[in-house]
Design goal:
The complex is a heterotrimer of chains A (359), B (509) and C (314).
Chain A (H helix, E strand, L loop, with lengths): L1 H9 L3 H26 L4 H14 L1 H26 L7 H23 L3 H27 L3 H21 L32 H20 L1 H11 L1 H6 L4 H28 L10 H11 L4 H25 L5 H27 L6
Helix pairs in contact in A: 2-14, 3-4, 3-13, 4-8, 4-9, 4-11, 4-12, 4-13, 5-6, 5-7, 5-11, 5-12, 6-7, 6-11, 8-9, 8-13, 12-13, 12-14, 13-14
Chain B lengths: L7 E12 L3 E12 L3 E5 L6 H8 L7 E6 L2 E3 L4 H6 L2 E4 L11 H11 L6 H10 L16 H13 L5 E5 L7 H16 L3 E6 L2 H7 L2 E6 L2 E7 L6 H9 L1 H9 L12 E11 L5 E11 L3 E5 L6 H8 L7 E6 L2 E4 L4 H8 L1 E4 L3 H5 L6 H6 L14 H14 L16 H14 L4 E5 L7 H14 L4 E6 L2 H7 L2 E6 L2 E7 L5 H10 L3
Parallel strand pairs in B: 3-8, 3-9, 6-7, 7-8, 13-18, 13-19, 16-17, 17-18
Antiparallel strand pairs in B: 1-2, 1-4, 4-5, 9-10, 11-12, 11-14, 14-15, 19-20
Helix pairs in contact in B: 8-18, 9-17, 15-16
Chain C lengths: L4 H31 L7 H19 L2 H26 L3 H24 L16 E3 L9 H6 E3 L5 H12 L2 H11 L1 H6 L4 H27 L11 H11 L4 H24 L6 H5 L1 H13 L18
Antiparallel strand pairs in C: 1-2
Helix pairs in contact in C: 1-6, 1-9, 1-10, 1-11, 2-3, 2-4, 2-9, 2-10, 3-4, 3-9, 10-11, 10-13
Classes of the chains: A mainly alpha (359), B alpha/beta (509), C mainly alpha (314).
């Protein structure tokens, strides 16, 4: 009975339980990681050390991990906004690609004219293009009631083919044997904190500043409140006088804008040129991070640093020990399935075992 | 005419039913149905008629009491059990699937009761009901409500039930169609079928039935033989009851404090259709004065729901206009705009799906009405709302342990208190209250009513209710709504209850 | 018409029928499941996993039929997992479906590399034994028609029987009950139709057919496995149901149309139009999906309770 009463007490702390679900999911994922290392006959402590070294153990790996985390976090912050409003934007991948394309084009065409204005302009244009790419499914959703999952997904593929066409056609570097664009001009490189490492000021500032900003928007503004109410029930949102269609559009456009910005950071802070390799499934990893982070910006921040560390660390481990890469991808799937199952399981248990007040 | 020696086919003994939330829908009701009689079940909305039908058709289970069929006790686990005994039910809201065509619906019913759909029978019945055969291929959603009603009746008759329940079968029919239906029922009676005819229309009950049972607030009031000697007004008084009169006399008299002749909400010649495209409002007019409580009463389904939806911007209207203070709206009300400019509150009757955001906490839910109000700024003053939440919990006696509780952990009554508290605490200029005490227990009902009464004066209240007692005990003026129109208006000082009941139940003035 | 054009068109039609096979297998099963009110967005994931399973088994045992069978069965397993997620745990169907798809993409990505070796970008082996064309004696010798209809892939011959089967189900008493569940689950339940049982059975059937669709991809069409080999086919199958208005014949026609688009895409590449970037043809199905959704996506009303999980109130 004691256990039973403890469960009842928990019902008032669903937030705590959600965090617990995330932690448990990460724990289970880690256990599976260790198990995989064991199955691949790698000394576990050595394997974990390599993962640590490859993710946070060296200055360079810290720089790389934070760079990757920024891009993931930006995508995820946007998804938090649209998922909170109940809009299933799974098109962050395409919005990110379009942002990357836009910034490349701006940098390559206007690079020698603009000087200091180049970086902000390229970023603004990527934000606009990312937002526009998200606006299309948003409009289709509110005007024609077409399922946003289908349209955003289709637009991911279209974006990928546009990218592929550009780097083999109009934007291809004629001197290169690979499908890739020429380097963007030096003045478009985001200023680095330490010159030998790629981590730059813009990424770091965005990574740190956006989380509290999103937190304030969601938790402390009336706009954030209307997103939450819309996500909970469309009817209630209408009853409260919220302009439902406008809010849906705004939420999906914000998420597209942030994904577009992520694309710009990938070009101007990581790759310095457009190539098919920028497509790494970040849009989908972003969904995982958003849900593991419990639709909370700080959660997403932690989850994106974790995911970036895992991707970098595991990739180094895989190269060193000659094991198949892809461990990070499967972990991501396991995180996702476990965290949503646990969250709903907790909720189910709470609803089943708690009393209703006032009866 | 049924003879009193006739054998009793179906009988209930002391049936009681209490809904979750504490509403006692039926209180020890004993009812008997003889073979070959037409028995009318008469009462207001919420008298318990539909509950009794649902119990006798196996949809609901009684809390106590017995059901006897042919003198043998039966317990229906589900509607199939009742159907297999030959009980057919024509429900008030046709149990037809809107997306299916008529034939599919009939076929489904046949499949469920494991009988074959006989085409000759069907053709025959279609002819009797004067329904075109081409209707069979049409979707229910595309049919006018009178044909839908006929199909529902036809669906049940097709399989020749021994006992037939008809729950408000005439609500969607024209007088001529009602006449035709009555002829069919009389033919069935000749075939020794027993029929229970549920209605709130006294005239119809008098016209068709052999006996009449009157229910009021879950209790059986009387069973009367109908031998042509019953008076309409006597029945009306029995249906409505003395308590209602008492409510009037107990009401606090005197004009509201800030009452004036200024009109804060005016509706003119409103025409609107429901989701299926049928006109539910056919030229409705009303004027709400500053500081008064105006009640709109009527039997459910006379356009009240559509009226509220038009007023709160949830439904478009074809003709007419709605004016809040100085803002006139045609076609659709921009409710966000109205709330922002004039602080209008709305207490919805769909409290679970519309009134609250279920997955969110108490605190978030009390902020809901403030979203649109002017001058709120960008940021939420959380401290203020936490304070307000605590005050609300204390002042309105809401049983919530703290303001962070999820609202779906609260009971229905507490959720209603939350909604009323929220809508009153914004200090609105107008409250649109739609059945504010529906489904509440007695204590909470009195509490909510007293809240509305004390808000009057500073606030003008439009009360939409199906409960005459509620209207009489709260309102300064009463508008009777019938068939999408306002048919009569009364000041609370000169209430002639008999006339009021007649207007409500049959629309005559 | 010149002599060159006729074979081109003939082969286009032949390919269209061949390439619509996996699409139709997935779409027709999704149609019935959606009629019962379940929106399954994990189709893509199921197809991915079964495509991989079929590939792995075929490579191991050199028997494409065994690969196909196990691949299809693996689809059932994943779909039951989907059922558990939304019905027992209570996750929204959209979220459960999407999560499973993301999970499947990670799982196959990993297992594929585990199997193929340690290389960073594996060059996948082609399957030696695959399920290929089956020419029907005599009939296949007919001009044009013989090539289009009677020199088809084994699975393409199943299209019509499958359509017939689903058409019959759709118009039977069982179909009526399924539709009732999809329209008014609470009413169906009160009338004694077991909502949970029907949905589970449909989910199992769908698992098999969708698994078959995935297995066809590796054992018969591509003859190998690639990362994300389904490339949105599962989602396009869902679109087919919408365009087909939850009607088996119209769904069939939509699938044929998209089979045609896929065939066009293949053939245009083979013809070597250099002026047309190949990315343009490759993106054709996705662009077409959006355009068709805009044009025809609102013609038919979806089942009323689509995507809403039913829970009996005690």
């Amino acid at each position: 009975m004691k256990v039973f009463f403890k469960i009842i007490k928990w019902r008032e702390k669903l937030g705590v339980l959600n965090v617990l679900a995330s932690i448990l999911a990460v724990g289970i994922g880690m256990a599976i990681l260790v198990l995989s290392l064991y199955m691949c006959q790698i000394n576990i402590s050595l394997g974990l050390q390599t993962i640590y070294a490859g993710s946070l153990g060296r200055y360079n790996s810290i720089s790389e991990t934070l760079l990757r985390a920024t891009i993931l976090a930006l995508i995820s912050y946007g998804l938090i906004i649209s998922f909170t409003a109940g809009v299933w934007n799974i098109g962050a991948e395409g919005q990110y690609i379009m942002g990357a394309i836009a910034s490349t084009i701006v940098c390559l065409t206007l690079g020698n004219i603009l000087g200091y204005f180049l970086i902000p302009l390229a970023m603004i244009i990527s934000v606009i293009i990312g937002a526009a790419w998200a606006l299309i499914p948003g409009l289709l959703l509110v005007k024609l009631n077409i399922n946003e999952v289908l349209t955003t997904l289709m637009m991911n593929y279209i974006a990928q083919y546009i990218l592929s066409w550009l780097v083999t056609g109009p934007l291809q570097d004629k001197t290169s044997m690979f499908p890739e664009s020429p380097y963007i001009p030096k003045q478009a490189f985001l200023p680095r904190i330490i010159p030998i490492y790629r981590l730059n000021y813009v990424s770091l500032i965005l990574l740190i500043l956006l989380a509290p900003l999103i937190h304030i928007v969601l938790g402390k503004t009336w706009f954030g409140l209307s997103l939450k109410i819309l996500g909970s029930s469309k009817r209630t949102a209408r009853y409260a006088g919220i302009n439902v269609n406008r809010t849906i559009i705004i939420s999906i456009v914000i998420s597209g804008a942030l994904a577009g910005l992520a694309g710009a950071l990938e070009i101007m802070g990581v790759q310095y040129k457009l190539r098919p390799g920028i497509v790494q499934g970040y849009g989908y990893t972003g969904i995982v991070i958003t849900l593991v982070g419990n639709l909370h910006p700080y959660g997403a921040l932690l989850a994106s640093v974790l995911m970036a560390s895992l991707i970098n660390g595991i990739s180094e481990t895989c190269q060193l020990f000659q094991i198949p890469i892809g461990l990070a991808q499967i972990l991501q799937g396991i995180f996702l399935i476990t965290v949503i199952s646990l969250r709903f399981l907790f909720r189910f248990l709470i609803e089943k075992y708690s009393k209703v007040y006032g009866e | 005419m049924a003879n009193s020696d006739d054998k009793i086919l179906l009988q209930t003994i002391n049936i009681s039913k209490t809904y979750p939330g504490g509403i006692r829908a039926l209180d020890k009701v004993s009812f008997e149905l003889k073979e070959g009689e037409i028995h009318a079940l008469l009462g207001e909305n919420g008298a318990g008629k539909t509950t009794l039908i649902k119990i006798l058709s196996g949809i609901l289970h009684p809390d106590e009491g017995k059901i006897l069929y042919n003198g043998v006790e039966v317990a229906f686990k589900n509607p199939l059990d009742a159907m297999s005994l030959g009980i057919g039910v024509v429900h008030q809201h046709p149990l037809l699937i809107p997306n299916f065509n008529v034939y599919e619906n009939l076929k489904l019913y046949a499949t469920i009761i494991r009988q074959r759909l006989k085409i000759e029978e069907l053709t025959n019945l279609l002819k009797i009901f004067k329904v075109e055969k081409s209707v069979l291929d049409k979707k229910i959603a595309d049919l006018p409500s009178s044909i839908r009603q006929k199909i529902e009746i036809l669906k049940v008759l097709l399989f020749k039930p021994k006992v037939l329940f008809l729950d408000e079968p005439t609500s969607a029919l024209t007088p001529i169609e009602v006449e035709e239906l009555f002829n069919i029922l009389k033919d069935l009676k000749e075939e020794k079928k027993s029929i229970v005819f549920v209605t709130h229309k006294i005239k119809e009950a008098l016209k068709i039935s052999d006996r009449i049972t009157i229910l009021r607030r879950g209790k059986k009031i009387a069973t009367l033989e109908n031998k042509g000697n019953l008076q309409e007004d006597v029945l009306a008084t029995l249906i409505v009851g003395d308590t209602t009169l008492k409510a009037v006399s107990e009401k606090v008299e005197g004009l509201p404090r800030n009452a004036s002749d200024e009109h804060v909400l005016v509706v003119e010649d409103l025409h609107a259709r429901d989701d299926l495209g049928i006109y539910r409002l056919k030229g409705f007019n009303m004027k709400l004065r500053r500081g008064e409580i105006l009640a709109i009463v009527g039997v459910a389904g006379n356009g009240q729901k559509e009226l509220v939806e038009c007023l709160t911007g949830l439904r478009r209207f074809d003709k007419g206009n709605i004016r809040y203070f100085n803002s006139i709206y045609t076609h659709i009300v921009d409710f966000c705009d109205v709330v922002r400019k004039y602080k209008v509150s709305y207490i919805t009757d769909d409290r679970i799906h519309t009134g609250i955001a279920r997955d969110l906490d108490f605190l978030t839910n009390i902020m809901l009405r403030d979203i649109c109000i002017e001058g709120r700024g960008i940021f939420i003053d959380k401290k203020y709302f936490v304070k307000r939440a605590k005050e609300m919990i204390a002042k309105y006696d809401i049983k919530a342990p703290h303001e962070k509780i999820l609202v779906n952990q609260l009971s229905g009554g507490n959720i209603q208190k939350l909604i009323v508290a929220r809508e009153l605490e914004v200090k609105p200029s107008i409250i649109i209250a739609e059945q504010p005490t529906q489904g509440l227990d007695v204590k909470t009902t009195i509490f909510v009513r007293s809240l509305l009464l004390s808000a009057k004066g500073d606030t003008s209240i439009l009360l939409i209710t199906y409960d005459l007692e509620e209207a009489l005990s709260l309102a300064d003026r009463i508008i009777i709504m019938y068939d999408g129109k306002n048919v009569a208006e009364h000041s609370s000082k000169d209430i002639d209850l008999k006339r009021l009941s007649l207007e409500m139940l049959s629309g005559v003035t | 018409m010149s002599k060159m054009e006729i074979p081109f068109l003939v082969y286009l039609f032949k390919d269209a029928i061949w390439l619509m096979t996996p699409l139709f297998f997935a779409a027709i099963s999704e149609m019935l499941v959606e009629k019962s009110g379940v929106l399954n967005l994990s189709l893509e994931g199921i197809m991915l996993i079964s495509a991989f399973t079929a590939f792995a088994i075929t490579l191991q045992f050199q028997n494409p039929y065994l690969g196909f069978l196990i691949g299809s069965l693996s689809g059932i397993l994943i779909n039951i997992f989907f059922y558990v997620l939304f019905q027992l745990i209570g996750i929204s169907q959209t979220l459960a479906g999407l999560s499973l798809t993301i999970f499947a993409s990670g799982l196959t990505f990993f297992l594929f590399r585990m199997m193929i070796g340690y290389a960073i970008s594996p060059t996948p082996p082609l399957l030696k034994n695959t399920i290929g064309e089956l020419a029907i004696p005599y009939l296949s010798d007919l001009p044009f028609i013989g090539i289009i209809f009677f020199r088809q892939n084994l699975f393409a011959y199943l299209l019509i029987p499958l359509l017939f089967f689903f058409y019959i189900i759709d118009n039977s008493q069982i179909g009526l009950k399924i539709k009732t569940i999809g329209e008014e689950p609470a009413m169906a339940d009160s009338l004694g139709i077991d909502v949970y049982k029907y949905r589970l059975i449909l989910i199992i059937i769908q698992g098999f057919l969708c698994g078959a669709a995935g297995s066809i991809l590796t054992t018969s069409i591509y003859n190998t496995f690639l990362d994300n080999i389904t490339a949105g086919l599962g989602f396009i199958a869902i679109t087919m149901v919408i365009l087909g208005g939850w009607n088996p014949i119209k769904t069939f026609i939509s699938c044929f149309l998209f089979g045609f688009i896929y065939a066009l895409q293949f053939r245009i590449q083979m013809l070597g139009f250099t002026w047309l970037p190949y990315q343009f043809t490759l993106s054709l199905p996705y662009v077409a999906t959006i355009i068709f959704l805009v044009l025809f996506g609102r013609r038919y009303k979806p089942p009323s309770s689509l995507g809403k999980t039913y829970k009996r109130i005690k």
